[in-house]
Write a structure and sequence with these properties.
CATH architecture of the largest domain in chain C: Orthogonal Bundle
Family (chain A): Belongs to the binding-protein-dependent transport system permease family.
Strand content of chain C: under 5%
Distance between the termini of chain A: 23 Å
Chains: A mainly alpha, B alpha/beta, C mainly alpha
Structural class of chain A: mainly alpha
Low-confidence stretches of chain A: 1-19
CATH topology of the largest domain in chain C: MetI-like fold
CATH superfamily of the largest domain in chain C: MetI-like
Transmembrane segments (chain A): 31-60, 89-116, 128-148, 178-200, 237-258, 281-304
Shape of chain A: flat
Largest sheet of chain C: none
Largest interface: A-C, 113 and 110 residues
Helix content of chain C: over 70%
Protein name (chain A): Multiple sugar transport system permease protein
Number of domains of chain A: 2
CATH class of the largest domain in chain C: Mainly Alpha
Structural class of chain C: mainly alpha
Helix content of chain A: over 70%
Mean pLDDT of chain C: 82
Number of strands of chain C: 0
Largest sheet of chain A: 2 strands, antiparallel
CATH class of the largest domain in chain A: Mainly Alpha
Number of strands of chain A: 2
Oligomer: heterotrimer
Domain ABC transmembrane type-1 (chain A): 90-305
CATH topology of the largest domain in chain A: MetI-like fold
CATH superfamily of the largest domain in chain A: MetI-like
Shape of chain C: globular
Organism (chain A): Allofournierella massiliensis
Chain lengths: 314, 448, 277
């Protein structure tokens, strides 16, 4: 189709009708626009916006099961900052994001650059392979990894012992030092599929004449990459950064099914801790307060990514 | 004109979407709407429809068993339709929680006092079942154990549970393996007891034999089956889990700390393994396939479940003690009714519970399906003449060792999480006293 | 970079090796699911893993289908397909006007959408739960579908796509006297088709895998999804990897089949989805 990454982002032209349209026309446009928006707005307001407001509202209450809510002001937020486990969960979440996001992005870029010039068949073979864990489904992937990491009859211990990496069985998911890395590893396998597909196509769209010209001019491969290709794939990179960040923050099934946040809270994440507070201890107000904080963190981070990555783009 | 048409079209699109949504709801969920519409018709005197949610207690997780019981029930009460949902212990509590928040709770629920009485009952969600506790029933159940009667009663004196069956949770060893390695000398086969010292010796013997991957596993990957680890810790040096009137947790007492330190030492010496990646179910699996030489999570029902899988004799044992006085954790299961505000349904639910628990022929059959023992002494031996008779006779001998039923202490839910987290810390080599103190602090704070 | 069929450089050898390792690493879990599902309990619970199932058995599948596994599968498909269809329709319409129309409140709505996108869905679950019960649709598949449709990502995506439509085309349509609906159906929809394809695939996968939402919203054994079903199979007293692998296999097969059949569209769709970033 006509849309393509190589074209300039369309920004200016949409302002065209902004000038001097008549009042009647503006009204007409507004009514038509809202009618088009209506189906979405109903669901959006009903099932996203209202719960969001309720979430914010409840975060100022001590709210639990089968009892009237008690207003506590910022009580839940104060409690949160004094809650060691919350801080631990926050640090774990940060660790997952800080490790997973750059790794996934860099690695998928590398894989994509390694396969995008291959023959069509092999390229699509690899894309397919890397995308498999994504489509298989988180729960299915998680349960098989749980078995593979098993201390006693997991294949990972067997292989690692076989090749001499370890002497004794390692309790991968039971050791506070290794558990979170196992989680990150599994998250990695389920996260790289999409970025690879995206990068393969973005790299394929880079204008070949530009790179050739640069090489004729004596630029090294690395220089060609940074000067010519990188700017052109920046929008893709930005998109990948954002979705990977959100995915990493929301990693929940992995934790719930593999470690329940243990051992010693080593794999507690904010997401899991919210779930635990709300659904195990019925601390709805407290859980919601953490949700609000998490939302703010993600929003700030996304904004930051847009800003940083957006710089090179314009 | 065109504009008007556009508006109508857009509106129609929006409407059709909503309509389409509404329309298919009824087809997709026709099964569920039947249950919820029952509410309005129930009081009109026509058939009453009630819902039973059951946790996996013995064969009560099997559809054919439960449906058989309902068929029996409907022979006498054809006007009461019973729908059943089967919960599991992994997500069951979440489901009940969401159901409570969604005001979508079942009428009847089948579990134990720690949920029915101290959790949902204490929150005022359950119906007072005092009228089921007739003088006859109370006397009959008291004769078996006064503790059962007390456990079913909330702090407010109301009964939130009507019990069906009970058991004493114990542990089991791999008999052949013990024999082969020479560890058998450390147990008293007559009384199925052992001392703390002999327990340690047995573990060391098993470890040194090299015939088993790990002699024992202290599972702490979640709360499931935690009665086993609690009983183990408490019995080693005769500690208690809570104080006598169930107002404070006492896991940091000198006896308990000593026990935890012993376990930590054994863990360091590889005589047993603290495993934060395993839950009770995993540990049982390890025991059943010979990876571990004993399990701390055993009872009559588990023995029945794993009977087909094991290639050895799982030999039920008491927990090791220093003073010879074993205190086993009791398990009590029974029915409670969620207060959905519909008297007709509550009545129907009570009728069902009475039939299942008290009926002269159904009662014993209901108990038999659980694989545990009746709370009613008048039922006598419900396993007499069945193929389970000998096995159950063995487990019957554990019942007198049942200790204090402390599961009704406040903050029970929080405490359960804190417990396995504490075990994880102990297994990880942290200071035992500090970990136990932290556990007690967290748990006591939750008593509220 | 280099010419397509260059000589073997050390870099190429190393990258080949890494790719091979990665392939094994990603495919092996799948292999392990399928082989595990036909292994006996004894063959599974052994410290020396069996690379190939020597005594294949269907016992795990028999045990699995004691549960309403096919119904779970159907529920999952229903959720994914309906959520996909509704999302595509609503998002295409909303995305178009947000990109191409000037109207009062546009900035506000778009800001709300962007803000809501950053919010992790899970944090609104408790209010959402209460709302669903208020509406009487808790524990129905709609309780999972509607919040998925309301999720603003699709609108964001479709807005980015619709911005690529040349204004001249809209202008021409207006001059031709085409009404709003006709403009949308005849001009906009064909132009954003790749975007819709991308969104469809994206929504389908998201809805299929949205374990958390399903966990909270669905209770009854008959309204479970296959993911929940597998998770429930890990019941407290019997961890049975063979059975769980059978469940995982049943969960994975349909979506893998769809993926392999439509692989081209998948990759195309995903790519289209990010064109704008």
């Amino acid at each position: 189709m006509t849309t393509s990454a190589t074209k300039q982002p369309v920004k200016g032209p949409s302002k065209r009708s902004g000038l001097g349209i008549s009042r009647a026309e503006a009204r007409r446009e507004t009514i038509a626009a809202y009618l088009f928006l209506l189906p979405f707005l109903i669901v959006f307001v009903g099932f996203v916006l209202i719960p969001m407001v309720m979430c914010l509202w409840t975060s100022f209450f001590d709210s639990t099961m089968a009892r009237e809510d008690i207003f506590v002001g910022f009580g839940n937020y104060i409690k949160m900052f004094q809650d060691d486990i919350f801080w631990k969960a926050l640090m774990n979440t940060a660790l997952i994001v800080v490790v997973a996001v750059p790794t996934v992005t860099a690695f998928s870029l590398w894989v994509a650059s390694a396969i995008y010039k291959m023959k069509a068949a092999s390229c699509s073979f690899f894309r397919c392979i890397f995308y498999l864990p994504v489509v298989t489904g988180t729960v299915a992937v998680t349960v098989v990894w749980k078995w593979m990491f098993n201390n006693y009859y997991g294949i990972i211990n067997y292989v690692a012992k076989g090749v001499g990496v370890i002497d004794n069985n390692v309790n991968w998911l039971g050791n506070p030092k290794t558990a979170i890395w196992c989680i990150i590893l599994i998250l990695f396998t389920t996260s790289i599929g999409q970025p690879i597909v995206l990068y393969v196509s973005a790299l394929g769209n880079v204008d070949a004449s530009l790179t050739e010209a640069a090489q004729v001019d004596g630029a090294t491969k690395l220089q060609t990459f940074w000067k010519i290709m990188w700017p052109q794939i920046t929008p893709t990179t930005l998109y990948i950064l954002v979705i990977t960040t959100i995915n990493s923050f929301q990693c929940f099934a992995l934790i719930q099914l593999l470690t329940s946040g243990g051992p010693n809270h080593a794999t507690d994440t904010i997401m899991y801790y919210i779930y635990y507070q709300a659904f195990k201890l019925y601390q709805y107000g407290y859980g919601n307060a953490m949700g609000v904080i998490l939302a703010i963190i993600i929003a700030l981070l996304s904004a930051l990514q847009f800003k940083v990555a957006g710089k090179g783009n314009d | 004109m065109k504009k008007a048409l556009a508006l109508v079209m857009a509106g129609a699109m929006a409407l059709s979407m909503v309509a389409c949504g509404g329309g298919s709801t009824s087809t997709a969920t026709s099964g569920s709407t039947a249950a919820s519409t029952g509410t309005s018709t129930a009081s009109s005197g026509a058939a009453t429809e009630i819902t039973l949610w059951t946790y996996p207690i013995g064969s009560w997780q099997k559809e054919e068993t439960v449906n058989g019981f309902i068929a029996e029930f409907n022979k006498q009460y054809p006007d009461i339709k019973v729908n059943v949902e089967y919960l599991d212990y992994t997500n069951g509590d979440d489901k009940v929680t969401t159901a409570i928040e969604a005001k979508n709770t079942p009428d009847i629920i089948f579990e134990g006092p720690e949920r029915l009485v101290s959790n949902w009952g204490a929150k005022g969600l359950m119906v007072d079942l005092s009228d089921l506790w007739t003088e006859e029933a109370t006397a009959d159940i008291s004769k078996t154990s006064e503790a059962v009667v007390n456990a079913c009663k909330g702090a407010d004196g109301k009964y939130y549970e009507y019990p069906l069956c009970m058991t004493a949770h114990n542990m089991a060893i791999n008999y052949e393996l013990f024999k082969e390695t020479g560890a058998l000398q450390y147990i008293d086969e007559e009384t199925r007891t052992w001392t703390t010292d002999n327990f340690v010796k047995a573990l060391e013997t098993l470890r040194d034999s090299g015939k088993v991957m790990t002699p024992a596993i202290v599972y702490c990957g979640g709360q499931g089956g935690d009665q086993g680890t609690r009983a183990l810790v408490n019995n080693l040096y005769s500690g208690t889990y809570t104080n006598a009137d169930h107002t404070a947790y006492t896991a940091n007492s000198a006896e308990n700390v000593k026990a935890l330190e012993l376990l930590q030492k054994l863990n360091n010496e590889k005589a047993l393994t603290f495993d934060p990646a395993l839950q009770a179910s995993d540990e049982l699996q390890m025991f059943a396939n010979g990876t571990a030489a004993m399990t701390f999570c055993w009872n009559a029902s588990n023995e029945a479940t794993y009977a087909e899988q094991v290639t050895f004799t799982p030999y039920a044992m008491n927990f090791p003690t220093d003073d010879g006085k074993v205190e086993l954790c009791g398990g009590i299961w029974g029915f409670g009714i969620f207060d959905n505000g519909d008297d007709a349904k509550i009545e129907a639910a009570k009728t069902f519970i009475k039939f299942i628990c008290d009926d002269a022929t159904q009662g014993p059959a209901s108990v038999q399906a659980t694989g545990f023992f009746p709370v009613r002494s008048s039922f006598g031996n419900v396993y007499a003449g069945t193929e389970d008779e000998t096995r159950m006779a063995t487990f019957q001998t554990f019942l007198p060792n049942m200790g204090d039923y402390y599961n009704v202490t406040g903050g029970w839910t929080e405490q359960r999480t804190a417990w396995w987290n504490m075990l994880q810390e102990v297994g990880n080599g942290s200071d035992v006293q500090a970990a136990a103190d932290k556990f007690v602090e967290t748990s006591n704070a939750a008593i509220g | 970079m280099n010419t397509v069929t260059g000589k073997m450089t050390p870099y190429k050898v190393i990258s080949g090796i890494i790719l091979a390792i990665l392939t094994v690493f990603l495919v092996f879990p799948l292999y392990w699911i399928f082989t595990g599902s036909v292994k006996t309990a004894a063959d599974i619970n052994t410290p020396t893993p069996q690379w190939f199932p020597t005594n294949p058995t269907l016992a795990n599948y028999e045990k699995l289908f004691d549960n309403p596994a096919l119904l779970w599968l159907w529920n999952t498909i229903f959720i994914a397909v309906v959520a996909m269809a509704l999302t595509c329709i609503t998002a295409a319409m909303a995305g178009y006007v947000l990109a191409k129309k000037k109207f009062y409140g546009r900035t506000v709505i778009f800001s709300l959408i962007v803000c809501a996108m950053a919010l992790p869905k899970q944090v609104i679950l408790i209010p959402l739960l209460k709302e669903m019960s208020f509406l009487g649709i808790h524990d129905t598949l709609w309780a999972v579908i509607l919040p998925t449709v309301g999720w603003p990502f699709g609108v964001f995506l479709m807005k980015q796509f619709s911005e690529g439509i040349p204004n001249e085309m809209l202008e021409a349509a207006r001059i031709d006297g085409a009404g709003e609906i006709r403009t949308f159906v005849q001009i906009i929809l064909p132009m954003v088709k790749p975007g819709i394809g991308a969104l469809a695939i994206f929504t389908f996968i998201t809805a299929w895998n949205d374990y958390f939402m399903q966990l909270i919203m669905l209770t009854k054994n008959t309204s479970l999804t296959i993911s929940l079903g597998i998770a429930n199979l890990q019941a407290e007293m019997a961890t049975d990897f063979g059975l769980i692998m059978a469940g995982a296999a049943v969960a994975a097969i349909p979506i893998l089949a769809v993926f392999l059949m439509f692989q081209k569209y998948f990759t195309q769709g995903i790519t289209m989805g990010a064109v704008k970033g």
